[in-house]
Request: fold
Amino acid sequence: MFATKLRYPARGVTKLNSTSRRTSRRARGGARCPEGRGFAALAFALTLAFAPGCGDDEQPETTAGPSVTTAPTGASAGTDAQTGSTAGASTGGTTSATATTVDPDPTTGVGSSSSGATETGVGPGCGDCLEPNQQCVDDVCVTSCQGQDPDPCGPAQVCDVLTGECVEPDTSCALAGPSTPCGDALCGPGTVCDDEGGCIPVAPCNGATCTSEGACWGHACGCVRAPACEDPDDALINGEFATDISSLSFDDDCNAWMVTIRAGPDFVRRLSPEGTLDTWTGVSEKDLGEVKVLKQLTIPRSYPEGHPLVSAPQEPLPVMGYGEVAVTYICCANCGCGITPQGVAKVDDEDPMAPLPIIIPAEITSGVGPFANQWTDSGPQGLTWGNDRVLYVGNSTDNGDINTADLDEMTDGLLGALPGRVTAGAPISDVHLLFAVEGGDLYRFNVNTAESEFVVGLSEHVTSLSHDAFSGRVYAGLANNEVIEVQPFTGEVELFATMPSRGRVAVSPSGALWFTPVKWVENGTLTSWPLPTEL
Reply:
C-alpha cells in the first residue's frame, strides 16, 4: 500500500471569480459484475478466483451519488445518462434487479445509459441481501468490510477494498484507507469526491461501487503495474530526437513527443519505440513551450499470480481523442517574434508535413520562474488535456487565468483564476486538474465547479507536473532539481529523486519517470527512473 510522508498542511476551498462555468462533464461508465465485488470470507475470494468470464468483462465505470447501489446487470448502448442507479424487487427466493449503468460510447467517450434485468440467487434465509458488499452463503447474508464506517478491521488491521477482507497494514497488492465525506455520500479508497455530492474513481481503479447508504469504494482496480509497451532506448531518445529539447511527453503507446526552443524555426518530434522519427516544423521562430498528449487517466487492471482477484488485464475502451497532441508557443514580448507570438496549436499526428499555426492566440504574458529565463518563462503554461477531451492551459488571457481551448472550433474560454502565474499542470481525475503557480503552491481545480482548493506548498518553482495512471500520484519537477512525489487529493509529499540539472519530468506508460533538460537553459542528457510496480 502507499506509504507517503505528510510535510505540509492543507488549506480550505477557494472560490474563483469566473466569467463562465462549464456544464457537467461526461462520466466514465461500464457494466458491473457480481464477481467484481470483494467478499469478507476467504471462500468468496477463492470462488472469485475461478469464476469464469465475469471479471474479464468489467469496463471502466463511474457510480456517482449516494443513492446508487451496484447490482448485477446487463449493459448495452442506450440513451444518454450521467449517473447510474439501481432498484431491486424481491420475489420469493429470487431477486430481480434492474439497473442503469453509465457506459462510455466507444467512438465519443460520452456516457450512455443502459438498463437490464437479471436474476441473482438469494437464499431463503438471507432476506434482502442486495448490497454490493454482501453475499448470501449457506442462507446467511455476509457483509464484507467494504463500505463500512467505522472500519470493522481496526485497529490492528485495515480493510482491503479489492477483496473485502481485513489485512495487515503492510500487505502488498491491497487498497485501503479512510473514507471522505461528500455530501450524503462517503468516498472510500479508489474514489474521490467530485465536489458535487458524488464519488468518482481515480487510479488505480476504473470504477466506483456504492451502497444504498452512499458508501463508495473503487472497483475494477489494479495493484500490479503491467506495461503494454516499452520506451525508445537511451541511445535513440538522446539522438536527433533530443536536439534543442524543451519539453517531453509520452502517448499510451510509449511514443515520445518533444518540442524545441532554438534559434530559427522550432520543431515537434515524435520517436517510436522502434526508432521511427517524425518531425513537424513550427511557425517562424516563435519558440515552442510545452507538448502534451491526451492519454488514459487509469490503466487496465492486473494482479499478481495467486491473488484472489486474478484475471486477465482488461483492454481499455477506445475513446476518440486519445493520442491527440497540442503544443504552446511562448515567444517572449521582446524577442522579436512578430505578431501573435504566443498561443496554442494542435499537431496533425498523421501528417508531419502539416503546418503548426497558432489556432488560439494568447495575450502576451511573462513570469520570473521556474527557469529564470525570459525565453522559457513566457506565454501559456500548464498545458493539460482533461479526460473530457478539453484542453486546459494557464495564462492564456492573463497570468493565473485557467482557460479552456477547443482546438477544433478554434475558441477558448475563461474558467477562473489562480492566485499566481501558472507554471505546470496535470489531470488527476475526470473533473480535477492539478496546477502549480509561481513559488510552488499546488492547487486542485475542478472543471465543473470552476473552484480551486489549495493542496500543498512546495516552496520552489515547479517546472513540470506529470500524472502516473497506475498509482494516481503526480511527480513534480522543481527549480532546485528535486523531484517530489505528490498525493494530489491529500497533499502528502515525499522526495522521489534529484534531477541532474534544472529540467522537466514526464511519466511514461512503460513505468518510467523521465527527466528532460531544457537545453536552451542548460544542456544535458535524458535519463529515467523506474516507478513503483505494486501498490
